[in-house]
Amino acid sequence: MKKILTTPIKDEDLASLNVGDVVYLTGQLVTCRDVAHRRLIELKRELPVDLRGGAIFHAGPIVRKKDDGSFEMVSIGPTTSMRMEKFEKQFIEETGVKLIVGKGGMGPETTTGCLENKAVHAVFPGGCAVLAATKVEEIERAEWQDLGMPETLWVNRVREFGPLIISIDTKGNNLFEQNKARFNDKKSAIVEKINSQVRFIK
Amino acid sequence: MDKESAVQSLTDVMAKFTAYIGKRLPTDVKAKTAKLRAAETNPLAIAIYDSMAENQDAADKLDRPSCQDTGVIQYFIAAGAKFPLLGELEEILLNATLEATKKGPLRHNAVETFDEKNTGTNTGSKIPWLDWEIVPDADYALIDVYMAGGGCTLPGSAKVLMPGQGYEGVTEFVFDVITSRGVNACPPLLVGVGVSTSVETAARLSKRAILRPVDSQHPNENAALMEKLLEEGLNEIGIGPQGLTGNSSVMGVNIESSARHPSTIGVAVSTGCWAHRRGKIRINADLSYDILSHEGVVL
């Protein structure tokens, strides 16, 4: 059966989740990426959206403005989460956000932020932006439109948005860090094997 | 056809082709991801491959860009010296980008540096980026369109090795880049490696390398061997789709090279994500065209 999280998300909704689990989201999902993070953390500006118990999406979508002034979600996939590593721990503390959706892993600071504040990071498969757009029921609002299409805070109502693969859980586990350690363990033997065959300078 | 209508006609073709490649993957990339899916045994990796295939079907049916990041638009041009619209091509490709941005629609991805404002048109100083090669005596133009997305651009790296580090240093550089930053760049990746004399020559060649077909080979025997060894070695690491582990890491490794200074080995890596959106079109002297990267296209 599909495990579905619904906003507002409570601490207990996340307690049993482990890295590698697959979940889906129903409720509100707000796009939030580089400049929005910088504005909150470095420029101390208040976010125009209340994220307590909420979910953010590291994403910069393609949105079409319809004739009646409303917006249509055309294509929305995740962007590289690691770019937000510098800000995310503090972002979690200040906003009370519970679910961070993006692409690829995040680092030790975010892992600590998730552990201390009971939040999770999850991966939506990168490049699957039309699949994601079909799970957006409506764009409810658009904030900070001065930032341009990719960086605007698009407030989406989503239904069973996923698959979301938990990459950082509330217990301090980080799936990508575990995977990277595995990759690095294998690396030197493989490199050595290749290098015995590429000594072209003689 | 007079010159004005010729310019209009080619602008229209290039606008449509630019928008098209954001929605449908090239034939070689599609075939390769299907092949990797068939060979995959990790259940989570299989589920991701299936999401990828489902996404491409939806993009085709709904006529939408398959990935939201339609990139900075780059054109790699090999133009015949006798191509009739040689002098007009720059303006044609600028207008094609503007038009494709509306038609696609494409995401607005040109931020004017130092002013730090998104232009909202996908055009800006030196954008779309044009890379030129002149083909002596030819009367056609070969144009590669590439959508340089943020995710697959981020791992890009170049440096100059000392000859003592040799091709062994090249291997280490490629593995370091792919196992650290490549993991987040939507694998399985197409890895382009430039082996050359300085940073900018190696970087340009590494980008040219990912414009080559996924399963193509370098004409030099040693370079082709190195492509094969790097591909097998990276796959042995088992990065898997989205970096979540699996039986493969890459769609392929392509090397492009030049001669080098005896004291230097310039090396660079460029990566293409699994949604490697590039297209190759040949414009003939009479402005008829052949699309070489995608089968069965109707613009």
From TrEMBL, chain A:
Pfam family for this entry, one: Fumerase_C
Keyword Lyase (UniProt): yes
InterPro entries linked to this entry: Fe-S_hydro-lyase_TtdB-typ_cat, Fe-S_hydroAse_TtdB_cat_sf
Top-level class of the enzyme under EC nomenclature: lyase
Entry's EC annotation: 4.2.1.32
Keyword set includes Zinc: no
Keyword set, alphabetical order: Lyase
Gene3D superfamilies in UniProt: Fe-S hydro-lyase, tartrate dehydratase beta-type, catalytic domain
GO molecular function: L(+)-tartrate dehydratase activity
Catalytic activity: (2R,3R)-tartrate = oxaloacetate + H2O
Highest taxon above the source species: Bacteria
Stretches assigned to the Fe-S hydro-lyase tartrate dehydratase beta-type catalytic domain: 6-178
Similarity-based family: Belongs to the class-I fumarase family.
Description of how the protein assembles with itself and partners: Heterotetramer of two alpha and two beta subunits.
Protein name according to UniProt: L(+)-tartrate dehydratase subunit beta
Organism: Azotobacter beijerinckii
TrEMBL record, chain B:
UniProt keyword terms in alphabetical order: 4Fe-4S, Iron, Iron-sulfur, Lyase, Metal-binding
Domain of life: Bacteria
Entry EC number(s): 4.2.1.32
Residue ranges occupied by any Fe-S hydro-lyase tartrate dehydratase alpha-type catalytic domain in the UniProt entry: 12-281
Swiss-Prot/TrEMBL cofactor(s): iron-sulfur cluster
Pfam family, one: Fumerase
One MF term in the entry's GO annotations: L(+)-tartrate dehydratase activity
Leader peptide range in chain numbering: none
Reactions accelerated catalytically: (2R,3R)-tartrate = oxaloacetate + H2O
Family per record: Belongs to the class-I fumarase family.
Subunit (UniProt): Tetramer of two alpha and two beta subunits.
Entry protein name: L(+)-tartrate dehydratase subunit alpha
